[in-house]
């Protein structure tokens, strides 16, 4: 369920006349995703877009990782994106956006599992486009404020590699475009 803060934001959107429906499910579990999509009210407009924004970190040196540590960031990205792809193949989507990461292009020390999951998102977007389906993979850099890099205290490490952090207001403006 949405947090109190998220629910307050949704209420503000509802107040301007927008109908908002929240669904609960796990995109990494195909049955759970199907059950969530079945929660769409019959009188709701058709689903026209997907934004897959899963992100989990489980850093470590690859050769020392347990299978669980390897899978923790990959499952929501890989299985989640695939399940969304399969579950919506029969729907006329206007957009299918995958939040990938610059880590899939440049790598990221201690994050081979995270980088691999994001590389999968990039490949899925290419595959969908080759089939004539909408798809965009955004290889986000690290966000300032409440992004994964900031929450994990990686801001200084990111800056030391020559990257800046994306200001949330600027990042949302880019997403809107």
Supply database-style keywords.
177 residues; mainly alpha; 3-stranded parallel β-sheet
Shape: globular
From the helix content, strand content and strand pairing, which structural class follows? Answer: mainly alpha
Distance between the termini: 29 Å
Described by strand count, sense and barrel closure, the largest sheet is: 3 strands, parallel
Number of helices: 8
- Unreliable spans are none
Portion of residues in helices?
A: 40-55%
Helices and strands, in order, run as HHEHEHHEHHH
The strand line-up of the biggest sheet is 1-2-3
Rounded mean pLDDT score: 86
How many E-type strands? Answer: 3
Rounded to the nearest angstrom, the radius of gyration is 17 Å
Describe the model.
- The protein is mostly helical.
- It is built from 8 helices and 3 strands, in the order H-H-E-H-E-H-H-E-H-H-H.
- It has helices at 4-15, 30-38, 67-87, 103-106, 112-130, 148-151, 155-160, 168-176; strands at 49-52, 95-101, 136-140.
- The protein has a 3-stranded parallel β-sheet with strand order 1-2-3.
- The chain starts with a helix and ends with a helix.
- The model has no long low-confidence stretch (mean pLDDT 86).
Offer a concise description of the structure.
This protein has helices spanning 4-15, 30-38, 67-87, 103-106, 112-130, 148-151, 155-160, 168-176, and strands at residues 49-52, 95-101, 136-140. The two termini are 29 Å apart. It has eight helices and three strands.
Secondary structure layout:
Elements: H1 4-15, H2 30-38, E1 49-52, H3 67-87, E2 95-101, H4 103-106, H5 112-130, E3 136-140, H6 148-151, H7 155-160, H8 168-176
Parallel strand pairs: 1-2, 2-3
Helix pairs in contact: 3-5
């Amino acid at each position: 369920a949405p947090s109190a803060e998220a629910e307050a934001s949704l209420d503000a959107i509802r107040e301007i006349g927008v109908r908002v429906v929240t669904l609960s499910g796990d995109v990494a579990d195909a049955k759970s995703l199907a059950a969530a999509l079945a929660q769409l009210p019959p009188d709701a407009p058709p689903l026209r877009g997907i934004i897959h924004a899963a992100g989990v970190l489980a850093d470590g040196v690859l050769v020392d990782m347990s299978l669980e540590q390897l899978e923790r960031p990959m499952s929501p990205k890989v299985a989640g994106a695939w399940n969304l792809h399969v579950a919506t193949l029969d729907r006329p989507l206007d957009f299918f956006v995958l939040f990938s990461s610059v880590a899939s292009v440049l790598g990221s020390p201690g994050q081979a599992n995270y980088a691999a999951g994001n590389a999968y998102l990039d490949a899925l977007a290419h595959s969908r486009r080759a089939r004539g389906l909408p798809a965009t993979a955004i290889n986000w850099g690290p966000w300032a404020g409440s992004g994964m890099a900031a929450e994990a205290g990686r801001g200084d490490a990111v800056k030391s590699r020559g990257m800046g952090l994306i200001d949330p207001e600027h990042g949302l403006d880019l997403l809107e475009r």
